[in-house]
Specification:
Blueprint: E1 39-43, E2 50-52, H1 58-69, E3 76-81, E4 95-97, E5 101-116, E6 124-128, E7 134-139, E8 156-160, E9 163-164, H2 170-178, E10 185-193, E11 220-223, E12 231-234, H3 238-255, H4 260-270, H5 276-287, H6 294-310
Helix pairs in contact: 3-4, 3-6
Protein name: GIPC PDZ domain containing family member 3
Pfam families: GIPC1_GH1, GIPC1_GH2, PDZ
InterPro entries: GH2_GIPC (IPR055349), GIPC1-3_GH1 (IPR056814), GIPC1/2/3 (IPR017379), PDZ (IPR001478), PDZ_sf (IPR036034)
Length: about 300
């Protein structure tokens, strides 16, 4: 079909002159470039400062850090934000503030300890780095493990009775430890993070559950996802932070793990549902590998509801 400007009107003696070509001084607008996100990083025991970019998940983050310092990605046990110390409140989870400084804790000495399970619970809270290493996040005061001085917060659990658990998720390791028979000794092979001189005597333990420190700096964070690309998002709201904290507490009491990113995912899932039954169905589809018991799901739903009421 011809345009109206190109058609001739019957009886007209001349056609409308064509529009002048665009001025060469006015080039078409270039598409908006995605901003480069560059993060500063160091090895926690001491190193020059490196710069990394272009990662979308934890494994890629470790690979970038390893490349910056000429080490293997498997040398990295976990990362902390804005602190070189083995501080579990500064642990890197699923979010990094755009101004955060990343400290990578690498493998140090390997040690083996023999433990006799005289109670049902060992007193350990397990988490993992999202890249194959499970490690100790908390030691309960007065527990079996608390009485073994060689075991420290931050130690990676490499093997149980010479059976390697590298590659296992935190909930799998916690389940293995729960199922060990009482009164029968077993061996833990642990790898402690390499430490600077001011960290040699550090042994953090707590019977209480401190609120996880914010990993955000400013109004935006980089959200790392186990599936899909990383996204820049607003800092979590007061409700999201409170609900995630309560869910993380339940993960520890039910499963012996702490995982702020898992807790955040469960809170996000709850926003898409209107009932506990619908919530349970969505959890099965998104996080089915955890096989959460029904009573746990009900408590999580209630905790999220209480957080919503508390935050108005």
């Amino acid at each position: 079909m011809e345009s109206a400007a190109a058609r001739e009107t019957p009886g007209a003696e001349a056609t409308r002159p064509p529009a002048p070509p665009p001025s060469p001084s006015e080039p078409p607008a270039a598409p908006r470039a995605r901003p480069r996100l560059v993060f500063r990083t160091q090895l926690a025991h001491g190193s020059p400062t490196g710069k990394i970019e272009g990662f979308t998940n934890v494994r890629e983050l470790y690979a970038k850090i390893a490349e910056a310092f000429g080490i293997a990605p498997t040398e990295i046990l976990f990362c902390t934000l804005n602190s070189h110390k083995v501080d579990m409140q500064k642990l890197l989870g699923g979010q990094i503030g755009l101004e955060d400084f990343i400290f990578a804790h690498v493998r140090g000495e390997t040690k083996e300890v023999e433990v006799t399970k005289t109670e049902d619970a060992l007193g350990l809270t397990i988490t993992d780095n999202g890249a194959g290493y499970a490690f100790i996040k908390r030691i309960k005061e007065g527990s079996i493990i608390n009485r073994i001085e060689a075991v420290c917060v931050g130690d990676s659990i490499e093997a149980i009775n010479d059976h390697s658990i590298v590659g296992c998720r935190h909930y799998e390791v916690a389940k293995m430890l729960r199922e060990l028979p009482k009164a029968q000794p077993f061996t833990l092979r642990l790898v402690q993070p390499k430490r600077a001189f001011d960290m040699i005597s550090q042994r953090s333990r707590s019977s209480k559950c401190p609120v996880e420190a914010k990993v955000a700096s400013g109004r935006e964070t980089l959200r790392l996802r186990s599936g899909g690309a990383a996204t820049v998002e607003e800092v979590p709201s007061e409700f999201e932070e409170e609900a995630s904290r309560r869910v993380d507490d339940l993960l520890e009491s039910y499963m012996g793990i702490r995982d702020p990113e898992l807790a955040s995912t469960m809170v996000e899932t709850s926003k898409k549902t209107m009932s506990v039954q619908e919530f349970a169905h969505h959890l099965d589809s998104v996080l089915g590998e955890f096989a959460f018991p029904d009573e746990f799901v009900v408590e999580v739903w209630a905790a999220i509801g209480e957080a919503k009421e508390a935050c108005g």
